């Protein structure tokens, strides 16, 4: 395993991760933070395979993301390029890879129930599981981030792309918000990061 990668994952997971990354055709690159994804996987034109992961993730979210992307690689290797990116082949592969890591030696005990629930039917993003996402956020370094679930209805805010919104009602699991320029209604995950507008 790339020595640099060791500093990003829980120490107790080193040996298991090392075994998953023995394939010389697979390269893992740690990148600057991206707003739209924690990581990604792709097959390169030269036939090699590449995983990229954001450098700003805490060790537990980094490990979940790394396993997610390794599952893409292994599902591709076993089933070929025609499978759906987050279809049943990927889900089963992700579950198989993750199960040995779901131990208190690797993940904090308070996170394990949320991981166990998530892995019953893993989604395309761990952020889509609000409770898991919040439990993982507990281990982020202190920051000044604000999330839409934290502000009251009627609050004006800005998203990372510069659009301005007013928060609306909660609809089941997501929040409505009206874009101020167009009047269009949008739906936000509770964990969507926002910037408050000072008026």
Order of helices and strands: HHEEEHHHHEEEEEE
Largest sheet, strands/sense/barrel:
6 strands, antiparallel
Strand arrangement within the widest β-sheet reads 4-9-5-6-7-8
Cα(first) to Cα(last) distance is 50 Å
Tell me what you see in this structure:
With 199 residues, the chain is an alpha+beta fold. It has 2 domains: 3-137; 146-196, SH3 type barrels. The protein is 29% helix and 22% strand. The strands form 2 sheets. Strands 4-9-5-6-7-8 form a 6-stranded antiparallel sheet, with no helix packed on it. It has a 3-stranded mixed sheet with strand order 1-3-2, covered by helices on one side. The longest helix is centred in the middle third of the chain and has 21 residues, at 59-79. It is globular, with a radius of gyration of 18 Å. The N and C termini lie far apart (50 Å).
Layout of secondary structure:
Elements: H1 3-6, H2 14-20, E1 26-31, E2 39-43, E3 49-54, H3 59-79, H4 88-98, H5 112-118, H6 130-137, E4 146-147, E5 156-158, E6 164-171, E7 174-179, E8 185-188, E9 193-196
Parallel strand pairs: 1-3
Antiparallel strand pairs: 2-3, 4-9, 5-6, 5-9, 6-7, 7-8
Helix pairs in contact: 3-4
Structural descriptors:
199 residues, alpha+beta, SH3 type barrels, three-stranded mixed β-sheet, 29% helix, globular
Question: Quick recap of the structure?
Answer:
The protein has 199 residues and is α+β, with helices and mostly antiparallel strands. It contains six helices and nine strands. The chain folds into two domains: 3-137; 146-196, Roll (SH3 type barrels).
């Amino acid at each position: 395993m790339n020595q640099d990668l060791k500093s990003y994952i829980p120490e107790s997971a080193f040996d298991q991760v090392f075994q998953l990354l023995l394939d010389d055709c697979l390269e893992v690159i740690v990148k600057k933070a991206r707003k739209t994804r924690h990581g990604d996987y792709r097959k390169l034109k030269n036939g090699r395979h590449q995983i990229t992961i954001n450098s700003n993730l805490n060790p537990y979210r980094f490990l979940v993301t790394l396993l997610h992307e390794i599952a893409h690689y292994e599902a591709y290797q076993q089933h070929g390029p025609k499978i759906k990116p987050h279809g049943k082949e990927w889900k089963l592969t992700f579950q198989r890879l993750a199960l040995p890591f779901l131990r208190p030696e690797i993940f904090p005990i308070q996170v394990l129930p949320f991981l166990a629930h998530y892995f019953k039917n893993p989604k395309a993003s761990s952020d889509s599981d609000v409770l898991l996402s919040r439990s993982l956020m507990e281990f982020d370094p202190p920051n000044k981030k604000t999330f839409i679930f934290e502000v009251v209805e009627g609050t004006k805010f800005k998203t990372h792309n510069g659009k301005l919104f007013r928060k609306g009602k909660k609809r089941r699991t997501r929040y409505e918000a009206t874009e101020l320029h167009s009047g269009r209604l949008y739906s936000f995950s509770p964990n969507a990061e926002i910037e408050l507008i000072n008026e």
